[in-house]
Amino acid sequence: MNSCDKCGNPNIIIKKKQSGQKLCKDCFIKSTQNKVLKDIRKYNLLEKGDNVLLGLSGGKDSVMLLDILNTLKKRNIIDLMAVTIDEGICGYREEGIEIAARNAKKLGVEHKVVTFKEYFGMTLDDIISKNNVKEGRRNACTYCGVFRRWIFNRVARDEGATKIATGHNLDDETQSIVMNYLEGNIQNLTRIGVKSETRSNRFTVKIKPLREIPEKEIALYVVARELDVHFAGCPYAGESFRAEVGNFIKELSKEHPTIMYSTLRGFDKMKPVLKREFSQESIVGVCENCGEPTVARLCKACTFLTDWENE
Amino acid sequence: MKIKLIIGEKEELIEISENKTVKNLLDIIDIASETVVVKKNDFIVIDEEIIEDGDLIEVIQVIYGG
């Protein structure tokens, strides 16, 4: 008999493959919120008085995180501000920005839109069109990731934020683990986790409260809560190695529904050993061009920008 | 039997045989159930839900892969 395991309601909206648990709409929403809030406590992601900067793209992950973090704001546990980065992806980003703004406004959360153009003088579309004719080119996600991290860190410092919260989910995190393992990027593996460790006081601590929630459950949550969400795929995402790995893990998960959880759990157990053996305790200085923290003379963003200027 | 099927902006009446589940329908229209949330007559349902004559089925694409 299909009925909610918690309240007996016959109208269930999920039957979890990994656990067999069946839940109705109200119990699913409540149990998902509780799981995220429990993880925030378990991993000490937030402290009373934290000034949290949320990366709000308008997509399902960040809109769900806004919904849950707002409950902590309403209880005066944290301050919350949302930032949307406009990378300049024509025909894709515009709608997400509007949706992000509507969500923030509805909840009375301060919202700011910042652009690649204002910080770097070019959009992601400009970068990619430049890049197509160049040898040794990287895919869009590499540039986007570097520039987004730079902006988040800069805005967080300018706004006096104590934490940067992002909507990375279980699928994202599992992909990162498998990708970096397959590519042999052990240094990168040592930096994957639910909460970043500060190597410099110029880096704001990053937290991922949705790290243990599967992407499909996040989607179900926003539909069940009837949240206003930008459901669309980034036009550049399909080119990435991440997308290939993601498809491979999704395929595996069909017959092995616990595979993402076990990948994450196994990795978290190994991480202290990886850190001890492979973490480079480099001295963090500041980029001589922009002043952002870096272990080299120039940060990654300025390295890309300088290379292009010299072409 | 006939059902109304909505996928994004597209809306159509389609004919399917009886005793089909949501999962059967998704297989017929070649959509991976891992990437969508399905509503039957405005309520979210699971893959095993049986579709009946006259149902309104809305398929919401929620996950975009590569």
Describe this structure in words.
- The complex is a heterodimer of chains A (311) and B (66).
- With 311 residues, chain A is of the alpha/beta class.
- Chain A has 2 domains: 43-279, 3-Layer(aba) Sandwich (Rossmann fold), CATH 3.40.50.620; 281-311, no CATH class.
- Chain A is built from 12 helices and 9 strands.
- The longest helix of chain A has 20 residues, at 140-159.
- Chain A is globular.
- In chain A, 37% of the residues are buried.
- The model of chain A has no long low-confidence stretch (mean pLDDT 93).
- Helix content of chain B is 11%, strand content 39%.
- Chain B has a single domain (2-61), classed as Ubiquitin-like (UB roll), CATH 3.10.20.30.
- In chain B, strands 2-1-5-3-4 form a 5-stranded mixed beta sheet, with no helix packed on it.
- The model of chain B has no long low-confidence stretch (mean pLDDT 94).
- By secondary structure, chain B is mainly beta.
- At the A-B interface, strand 1, helix 9 and helix 10 of A face strand 4 of B.
- Write the element-wise H/E pattern of chain B from the N-terminal end onward: EEHEEE
* Number of alpha- plus pi-helical segments of chain B: 1
Structural class of chain A: alpha/beta
CATH architecture of the largest domain in chain A: 3-Layer(aba) Sandwich
At the fold tier of CATH, the topology name of chain B is Ubiquitin-like (UB roll)
Radius of gyration of chain A: 20 Å
State the helicity of chain B in percent bands: 10-25%
- The helix-and-strand class of chain B reads mainly beta
Using the 3D structure, state the CATH architecture of chain B: Roll
Count interface residues per chain for the largest interface: A-B, 31 and 16 residues
Helix content of chain A: 40-55%
Strands side by side in the biggest sheet of chain B: 2-1-5-3-4
Number of strands of chain B: 5
